């Protein structure tokens, strides 16, 4: 396991080397950058089809640590949790307890196509870190709706505000239902929170799950310089609460004192241009219900 001193050393190391295939302003690229900075290069990355898989492999392999290329294994769409669990089991049989095996999968490969494998790995308590980088649609194939797409988004397979406020699949609640050792949400807008959680996860044995919001410039239809701002607004509007679940300590809400209106978040994205005030009010009511539920479970009953 990495010691605290070793983890801190990695904050100055860059692991994504150009040329790579990520879009300018890509939230997934920033998430991967911060995650590797936090845990180092003693990793094997398992990636199903999605934005990250081709971006770190073409035009050339771009994940490089102090000791050379980082090991990356590409797997079928629905099997990243299974692949990662098998690789970790093999490493442990060989006596390697140090290498972290990370399933790095998008929302399509997590919420939808890979959901059964994810649930099974969590139930078996596989000793892996599973990261869902969530750009809220199948962006690698042209922006089709996924199980995490907000109801008001325009995609190539859905149009208009119908469904706003109905809520998307909430993976943190599902992981808590599996009673995994560790589960957390994070976003690149709060890199310190993301990296702190990643460091903590390294020193926990068993199934560890991350849901990281990663805005997508072409899919969300916004200028590249707004990626970090949108990530922060998602937290500040309580659309994407930063939470941490530990089997021993229960649920904790981070960044509770932030509150901004959903209109600002909606107004910056072309994919949500069809969402009007009535839909925003419905959406806010849904977010408030979920926030109240999080507060009850975490014990923050006085937080409004």
Describe the SSE topology.
Elements: H1 4-9, H2 27-39, E1 43-47, H3 52-55, E2 64-65, E3 68-69, E4 71-74, H4 80-93, E5 100-106, H5 108-112, H6 115-124, E6 129-134, H7 171-178, E7 182-187, H8 191-202, E8 208-213, H9 217-220, H10 227-236, E9 242-246, E10 250-254, H11 262-267, H12 277-298
Parallel strand pairs: 1-4, 1-5, 5-6, 6-8, 7-8
Antiparallel strand pairs: 2-3, 7-9, 9-10
Helix pairs in contact: 2-8, 4-6
| Secondary-structure element series | HHEHEEEHEHHEHEHEHHEEHH
Structural classification? alpha/beta
Query: What CATH architecture label applies?
Result: 3-Layer(aba) Sandwich
Number of strand segments: 10
> Helicity range of the residues?
25-40%
Structure annotation, total helices: 12
Walk me through the structure.
Helix 4 (80-93) packs parallel to helix 6 (115-124). A hairpin with a 3-residue loop joins strand 9 and strand 10 (250-254). The protein has helices at residues 4-9, 27-39, 52-55, 80-93, 108-112, 115-124, 171-178, 191-202, 217-220, 227-236, 262-267, 277-298, and strands spanning 43-47, 64-65, 68-69, 71-74, 100-106, 129-134, 182-187, 208-213, 242-246, 250-254. The protein is of the alpha/beta class and 304 residues long. It has one domain (4-298): 3-Layer(aba) Sandwich (Rossmann fold), CATH 3.40.50. It is globular. The strands form two sheets. It has an eight-stranded mixed sheet with strand order 4-1-5-6-8-7-9-10, sandwiched between helices. Strands 2-3 form a two-stranded antiparallel ribbon. 38% of the residues lie in helices and 16% in strands.
């Amino acid at each position: 396991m990495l010691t605290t001193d070793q983890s801190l050393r990695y904050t100055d190391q860059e692991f994504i080397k150009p040329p790579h295939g990520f879009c300018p302003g890509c939230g997934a690229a920033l998430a991967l950058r911060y995650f590797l900075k936090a845990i180092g290069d003693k990793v094997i990355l398992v990636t199903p089809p999605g934005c990250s898989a081709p971006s770190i492999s073409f035009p050339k392999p771009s994940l490089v640590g102090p000791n050379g290329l980082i090991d990356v294994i590409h797997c079928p769409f629905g099997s990243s949790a299974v692949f990662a669990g098998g690789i970790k089991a093999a490493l442990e049989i060989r006596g390697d307890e140090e290498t972290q095996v990370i399933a790095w999968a998008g929302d399509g490969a997590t919420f939808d196509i890979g959901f059964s494998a994810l649930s099974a790995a969590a139930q078996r308590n596989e000793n892996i870190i599973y990261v869902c980088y969530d750009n809220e649609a199948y962006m690698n194939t042209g922006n089709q709706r996924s199980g995490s797409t907000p109801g008001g988004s325009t995609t190539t397979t859905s149009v208009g505000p119908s469904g706003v406020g109905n809520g998307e699949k909430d993976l943190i609640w599902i992981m808590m239902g599996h009673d995994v050792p560790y589960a957390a949400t994070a976003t690149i807008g709060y890199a310190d929170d993301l990296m702190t959680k990643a460091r903590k996860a390294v020193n926990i044995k068993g199934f560890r799950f991350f849901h990281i919001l990663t805005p997508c410039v072409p899919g969300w239809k916004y200028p590249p310089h707004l990626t970090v701002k949108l990530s922060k607004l998602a937290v500040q509007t309580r659309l994407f609460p930063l939470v941490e679940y530990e089997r021993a300590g229960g649920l904790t809400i981070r960044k509770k004192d932030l509150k901004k209106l959903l209109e600002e978040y909606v107004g910056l994205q072309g994919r949500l241009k069809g969402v009007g005030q009535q839909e925003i009010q419905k959406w806010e009511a849904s977010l408030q219900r979920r926030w109240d539920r999080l507060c009850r479970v975490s014990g923050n009953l006085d937080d409004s």
